[in-house]
Predict the structure.
Amino acid sequence: MPPANRNRTVVWKPLVVCPQPDFQRRLHAVLTELAVEQPCTLTEYPRSGTITVLVERHGCNICFLDAATNSEEAQLLISELAPAVPVVALHPRNDADLILRCLRRGACEFVADPTADAVRGVFERLARTRYEAAQQAPGAVYCLVPRKPGCGASTLAAHLAIQLRSDGANQVLLVDGDHLTASIAFMLRLKPQFHLEDVLRDWERMDDDLWSRLTVPAFGLDVLAAPEDPTTRPEVSRQLAAELCAFWRERYAVVVLDLPDVRAAVDCGFAALADIVLLVTTNELAALHATRRGLRYLDAEAGDRAKLRLILNRYTPATGLKREDVKTALALEPFAILCNDYEAMQAALLDGKPVPAASRFGASVRALCRQLSHKDPPERKSASWLGSLLNRK
């Protein structure tokens, strides 16, 4: 039998999180016997929100996680990690309750006795699953974040979702995560009976039938609205955000998530979980000052510029900074520029419909959808006098 790390051409690079020294040594010996690449090993549970960064930094594509030493910490780590890589729960005792809790968090395999045969079987089953899943890739999550209220991020989120559906995305979900403005239902003239808070309340018993009753169809999409009461603030933890994204990716080709600000996107964990973060701003000096601060917060807390896309909305060169000035000031190339199409937008808002595809804004959104199919990283440049102006306290 060939070594497990060569099965179906999968080269396994494990992350081992195991505070139990004896169990860790036995697992290391088995991985060496199976000719698996030297694992990245943690002898303590990492703090919340850091494990996915470690996986990306070390290029790991599987995690063996001690689920027994501190089961509560382990459950949180499984929830964070499961959307990114397969998690194999290590449990040295036969504990049916622990196995069930790990399953609910997203663990896909279990090892109680790390023998060569047991671990080889794990690799072979996961390789088959990976091969089959390649035929149906998980859905993409786009996270839209306004850098300043009134930048038009919610309007863009709705039109982007509708355009992606028109372009052929099989299933599209539009989520309004802004409890204060709740713009999506207002723009699309929806009267949903249920909203995001209901999803969070019923999450432990969520299934496809319940989910279908909590969303509302509109313009070919499924829409999950924000709570109607602005004093209601749904609390989404990083753990729950990871579970939501995993659930959505299994059921939708694209998820468009409209969030209120950078802090919410980072603190809930959606910025780290998303495939692409669209930071929406305008070309006014005050908005760009706010955008610069938002970029600093994203860099400090999320730390992945590769997935960031800067969107200049309502672009009017005559009354704001030119594209090149914006690029220089922010040291970031605008990914897309959306036309200022005030009359078309107002008419569409009054009708409760998306703007016509032939309008200037509609054409801009179509162009953005085409660009999102590529993965070119945003360009950086050194700052200038304008950057210094925006950076003033």
The CA atoms of residues 56 and 348 lie 43 Å apart. The radius of gyration is 23 Å. The chain has a mean pLDDT of 84. The first helix runs from residue 21 to 33.
